[in-house]
Design a protein that fits this description.
Elements lengths: L6 H8 L16 E5 L2 E4 L4 E4 L2 H4 L8 H13 L11 H13 L4 E7 L2 H19 L2 H4 L3 E5 L8 H6 L17 E3 L7 H11 L3 E6 L3 E2 L5 E2 L2 H13 L3 E5 L23 E4 L11 E6 H4 L21 H14 L2 H23 L5 E7 L2 E6 L10 H11 L2 E2 L6 E4 L7 H12 L1 H6 L1
Parallel strand pairs: 3-15, 5-6, 5-7, 7-10, 10-11
Antiparallel strand pairs: 1-2, 2-3, 4-12, 8-9, 11-12, 13-14, 14-16
Helix pairs in contact: 3-11, 4-11, 8-9, 12-14
Bound molecules: pyridoxal-5'-phosphate.
Pyridoxal-5'-phosphate binds next to helix 5.
Length: about 425
């Protein structure tokens, strides 16, 4: 270490940040600590974490209850391979999750993050058909996806995601999918017809229920998704709900899938699973999905796993987070934030002086577009808004011209108001 170099200088000499243009871009801010909704930098400046650190932090930062669970587990059993061993945190967490997930879920497969949870779900779905080993089931190979979907950054995940700035360089290596428009009243019948025509070749349908996150916080109707799910069920198409972002209260219910009568066959979870404290992924499935894997034929085993599958500390952290989530106080907070956000939507819609369109919300998520014909992720207004808001002590990170709010559940009304004031200043940030 060269003395007297700042942490930023050392960072810039060595590190490569995710989703960050490396040259001449916003320099990262060096944080020293965080508590509840607030991040503190090395100059003591505070920032409201208005997007829950990329949608993971449910209960705010540096939570003592979660920290204690981590510490205790670390001293008891930090890690062991999950092929020949099992342990209480993994079993307890599976039990807790199955208790709150839709009632048709019956098996829990652990992995490390959202992308691995999705990767596992797609492989499970494909092998479910392959294992049945009949001419008809071996034809079930295609995955159906929605426009503007985002399911993660590994190759399988990129294949089932919208082809975009994120995936261009890898286009030639991604497998073919069937793409349906995000459900709306004009196209739903065509989508249903296409599913019916293609069903013999379709293995599964993967979707972000009710709100598509990285694709631009695009929201759609539960009744339309219900129609699609119903048709999929009739056609034996495996339904995979990617609840990596929507899980654990984000949409106002514990899982977005609960808004529909028809339930998925597979559910992917991560992000809020550990309250944002440690990386962990879960792929839950029904007994029907599990059945073709329950066989003496060892060629039909699910040969997938990661070094840190079912990491005991991750599982213990998730258990602690779930305990906090299910407290009445947290549920009340989710309702309070939902109410606050609904008011914000009304105010933002009513204020004609603001250049905002499509102001919308679901549960604890608010989103709108800054009127601008450029809907691309690379829209240069995004970093301008981020920089302006950071200067005002609010951390937001627009997706192109889509601005959104997704706060930790401990955010106070006063902090919510400060974020709201920051939104109203966006036209000022854009003049700089
Ligand atoms: C973030 C996200 C993922 C990927 O999760 P990572 O942990 O970042 O790999 C997958 N699906 C959805 C819906 C997401 O929002």
């Amino acid at each position: 270490m060269i003395p007297n170099r700042t942490i930023i200088e050392r960072d810039q000499a060595m590190l490569w940040h995710p989703y960050t243009t490396q040259k001449g871009y916003l320099v990262p801010i060096a944080l020293t600590q965080a508590k509840d909704t607030l991040l503190y930098d090395s100059n003591g400046k505070q920032y409201i974490d208005a997007i829950s650190s990329w949608w993971v932090t449910l209960h705010g930062h540096s939570n003592a209850f979660i920290a204690e669970a981590v510490y205790k587990q670390m001293l008891t059993l930090a890690h062991v391979s999950f092929s020949n061993f099992t342990h209480e945190p993994a079993v307890d967490l599976a039990e807790s999750l199955l208790h709150i997930l839709p009632p048709n879920m019956s098996r829990i497969f652990y992995s490390d993050n959202g992308s691995t949870a999705v990767e596992v779900s797609v492989k499970m779905c494909l092998q479910y058909w392959w294992n049945q080993n009949t001419p008809a089931t071996r034809k079930r190979k295609k995955i159906v996806v929605l426009t503007d979907s985002y399911h993660g950054d590994t190759f399988g995940c990129m294949s089932v995601s919208e082809k975009s700035t994120f995936t261009h360089a890898f286009q030639d290596y991604l497998f073919e999918v069937i793409q349906l428009p995000r459900p709306d009243t004009h196209t739903i019948q065509d989508s249903i017809n296409l599913l019916k025509q293609q069903a013999d070749n379709i293995a599964g349908f993967i979707y972000e229920p009710l709100i598509q996150g990285a694709g631009g916080m695009k929201m759609y109707d539960a009744s339309l998704l219900q129609e699609l799910l119903l048709v999929c069920k009739q056609l034996n198409i495996i339904c995979i709900a990617d609840e990596v972002m929507t899980g654990f209260g984000r949409t106002g219910k514990l899982f977005a899938s609960s808004y529909m009568a028809e339930q998925p066959d597979i559910i992917c979870l991560s992000k809020g699973l550990t309250g944002g404290y440690l990386p962990l992924g879960v792929t839950a499935c029904t007994h029907a999905i599990y059945k073709p894997f329950f066989t003496d034929d060892r060629t039909k085993t699910f040969y997938h796993g990661h070094s840190f599958t079912a990491n005991p500390v991750g599982c213990a952290t998730a258990l602690a987070s779930l305990t906090l989530l299910r407290k009445e106080e947290t549920m009340r907070n989710i309702e309070r934030i939902k109410g606050g956000i609904e008011k914000m939507v009304d105010w933002l819609k009513a204020d004609q002086s603001l250049p905002f369109i499509n102001v919308r919300s679901i549960g604890t998520i608010l989103a709108f577009e800054v009127a601008d014909s450029n809907h691309n992720y690379l829209n240069p207004i995004a970093p301008k808004i981020t920089a302006g808001a950071l200067a005002d002590g609010v951390f937001i990170r627009p997706l192109g011209n889509t601005v959104y709010l997704m706060p930790p559940y401990c955010i106070t009304d006063d902090e919510l108001n400060r974020v709201f004031e920051c939104f109203k200043k966006i036209p000022v940030y854009l003049q700089k």
